[in-house]
Amino acid sequence: xxxxxxxxxxxxHLIFILIFLLVVQSGIYIDQTGLANINPTExxxxxxxxxxxxxxHDGIISPGEYDGFALIDSAxxxxxxxxxxxxxxxxxxxxxxxxxxxxxLNANPSTKMAGADIYIGYVDATGAYIQDNIGTxxxxxxxxxxxxxxxxxxxxxxxxxxxxxxxxxxxxxxxxYKITPNVKIDIMWAVSTxxxxxxxxxxxxxxxxxTFSTVKPQPPSVFTTNSSDSxxxxxxxxxRDGGSxxxxxxxxxxxxxxxxxxxxxxxTSASAIISGLTNGQTYYFVVTAxxxxxxxxxxxxxxxxxxxxxxxxxxxxxxxxLNKITLSWDPPSxxxxxxxxxxxxxxxxxxxxxxxxxxxxxxxxGYIDLDVINGKTYYYKITAYNSFQESTFSTMVSTFSTGxxxxxxxxxxxxxxxxxxxxxxxxxxxGGFTFVGYNVYRxxxxxxxxxxxxxxxxxxxxxxxSVVNLKTYFYVVTSLNQKxxxxxxxxxxxxxxxxxxxxxxxxxxxxxxLVYLSWSKxxxxxxxxxxxxxxxxxxxxNSFVWIGNTSLLNYTDNGVTNKDHAYxxxxxxxxxxxxxxxxxxxxxxGGVPSAPRSISGxxxxxxxxxxxxxxxxxxxxxIQGYTIFRSNNSVNFYRISNITGISYKDTNxxxxxxxxxxxxxxxxxxxxxxxxxxxxxxxxxxxxxxxxTLELFSNHxxxxxxxxxxxxxxxxxxxxxxxxxSGNAHLIGFNNSGTNYRDYxxxxxxxxxxxxxxxxxxxxxxxxxxxxxxxxxxxxxxxPLTAKVNGTQVLLSWSAPTYDGGRPVLYYLVYQYVxxxxxxxIVGNVTSLQYRDVNLTRGQNYTYWVQAFNSEGASPLSNxxxxxxxTLKVNVVASQISKAFFDNxxxxxxxxxxxxxxxxxxxxxxxRRINKPSTP
Length: 920
Known about the structure:
Layout: H1 8-25, E1 43-44, E2 68-73, E3 78-85, E4 88-95, E5 101-105, E6 117-124, E7 127-135, E8 141-143, E9 151-156, E10 161-168, E11 184-191, E12 204-211, E13 221-228, E14 231-237, E15 248-254, E16 262-267, E17 271-274, E18 283-291, E19 294-295, E20 302-304, E21 314-321, E22 324-330, E23 342-348, E24 356-362, E25 366-369, E26 377-385, E27 397-400, E28 412-416, E29 419-423, E30 435-443, E31 451-457, E32 461-464, E33 472-481, E34 492-495, E35 504-511, E36 514-520, E37 529-538, E38 545-550, E39 554-557, E40 565-574, E41 577-581, E42 585-588, E43 597-604, E44 607-613, E45 625-631, E46 638-643, E47 647-650, E48 659-667, E49 670-674, E50 678-680, E51 690-696, E52 701-706, E53 718-725, E54 728-735, E55 740-743, E56 751-760, E57 763-764, E58 771-774, E59 786-790, E60 793-797, E61 811-818, E62 823-830, E63 834-837, E64 845-854, E65 857-858, E66 865-868, E67 872-874, H2 881-885, E68 895-901, E69 905-911
Parallel strand pairs: 1-12
Antiparallel strand pairs: 2-3, 3-4, 4-10, 5-6, 5-11, 6-7, 7-8, 9-10, 11-12, 13-14, 14-17, 15-16, 15-18, 18-19, 18-20, 21-22, 22-25, 23-24, 23-26, 26-27, 28-29, 29-32, 30-31, 30-33, 33-34, 35-36, 36-39, 37-38, 37-40, 40-41, 40-42, 43-44, 44-47, 45-46, 45-48, 48-49, 48-50, 51-52, 52-55, 53-54, ...
């Protein structure tokens, strides 16, 4: 029989722990630093009656930021600050330490840290950190499963640390203490002089008690005002309520800044309307908040000025004159209690258009608009201003100015043999009088000495046949109404000569973003043609621009865009000048479509589906359809169908053969370019992997299988491995190179089901056959344990575990407890189901247990049996001592442990650590 004792140093340590427990029960707490701390008198906070301040977690305690404070420990200068607001409490803790600071709510010397709601934090070079903890015992704590800190911040230097944070009074978390205002709460504080972490041991700690008292609210802040006639509307941000709901707000006003405030309004919401005021006078306001403890101090002063509504100007009128429009109006009936400062004049080109301000900064009731086009109607509205606001629009008035029609700026001309042709466009208005026509002027000197050569022409063109070849002329045109003539138009210069006749366009065609022109050679008037000039216009046959010269009888224009409506004319030039232009020819630009985009495909059993996107460019004409081409050698493509959609299903194919496809679009211009090609190989999904087997190892399961009999014409990309538990299967991995997989993510003693699928380009196969395996664990306890006494011997017997954990039972350990000297011993290590303990002492009592071991570990203990050498007593309830000495794998650690019997007798015994044998 073997007896095991612990070493003396460990025994001394356990004796010290026992003494510590006895001292704690007596109500005295001895701190690890040696400082004796008996609960000090509760500290009641006194609210600070200073200007209000928001609680900002910036590591700075500002005046009025917190409702109260207390010095908890003078040695560490440990302060606690607090503020209450409805359901939130704001806390700050500061101490003369460079390490962490901590406070525990609902903690005192009798309970130690057990169940305490602990907040510990520090500040280092990277920022402030805080953690919500729960006390788990007399000397330990752990992080809460749910962090309930709303916000935090802090600051620190070489000697001081300050942490600020907030949380709900009632977080709803069982690990957090519910704070009730005005109710005393026991606290614990702790600091470290150096450690910036959440785990190091404190250097000072103590206990106290606090009351988070409700106080008067802070004054409101962040005011907004809205002035109207004899009235000022005020709103504000509700302040902290001090822990007691705000029931009222009072608004005080004065006509003098800083004094003479009188009560103007009492409200229950965060806004008020003050009426009966004098428009234009400045009023000064302060606001207070009231809760059950009283009225706050005044808020910061703010001011506002009531202003009545200013009405629109009256009786506006507009009178058109020569090159101007004169506006007039009467002042508004109401000026809003303030003097008028100016009027605004707004104008629009239509009654329903947008009115734009064209004039202001005038106190006169009139305005002259000189920026007008004679004969064009304008619409006007007027507003009035005081120093606070602008009125609404007056009623609308409209008229037009009179005078000459607008000056023509579009004169163009062509000179040919003894002839000049002029063209122009009509002016925008008639100048307010009936339009008469046009006058044509000519000079041989630029800018002067014009002679009228045509009067009251009604058309927009004129042919001057009184010119002489080789002479240069200058022309201008004017427009006329019944009363006035406009100014001269733009001047054009033309040299008359034996210029060529006009060419005749004989062909015009368009392609994709280009136009091809050709024409016949005209009569050259006995001077060789030097080149041809090509003119183009988009959408407007009256506004041409030169686009190029050529000596050929054709021209390709690549400066157009599909769907442009392009107009063309061509002129010929010899050494006498440029001749008349051809007649105009036009067409809509366009060509064949560009290639279809993003061709893609989907394969299936004996079929391929080809899809694409419409071309970027339809060539300027509606796409009429698509042609699909197919090949099986990537060289010879054959048309297989024309369709109008953007996908095509090609059927009756041979699985496993690769086909190539191209697509082109066509419109009324013809067939466009082919798309890029795509390869598609029809097939079917793979069949199921076969012959799935499972092999169990100590730390994983090896799954093996055979490849499918039919892969559907496509190579296997990978195998997916699924594992199920109680019918719920999920993907645990894949193998893209072999037919096996090792599952290391298993738990012991669990029944797992596995199956495998094969994946090809066509998707996933059906699932393989299901295979199950139960992973190994420690055995169940050997029950029941019985004992037979024969003199000084005891024969112990037991049954093998009902479940061996998936591994063979290797041996059994037999434990003996001797009551007289309270020693626990391992007396047997056997492979059989019996053990005989001999040489027992008569008159002594013994208790026995048995524990089974396999390669996975130790079973729970069997039932205990109590034995006297003369009698046999079987107790089927395991002694509580087993919970103190055993776990599922080993006897508890060596060392001395005190067992309290009746809270009086204390005895020391020792047990030796016995590890389970190594796994074979």
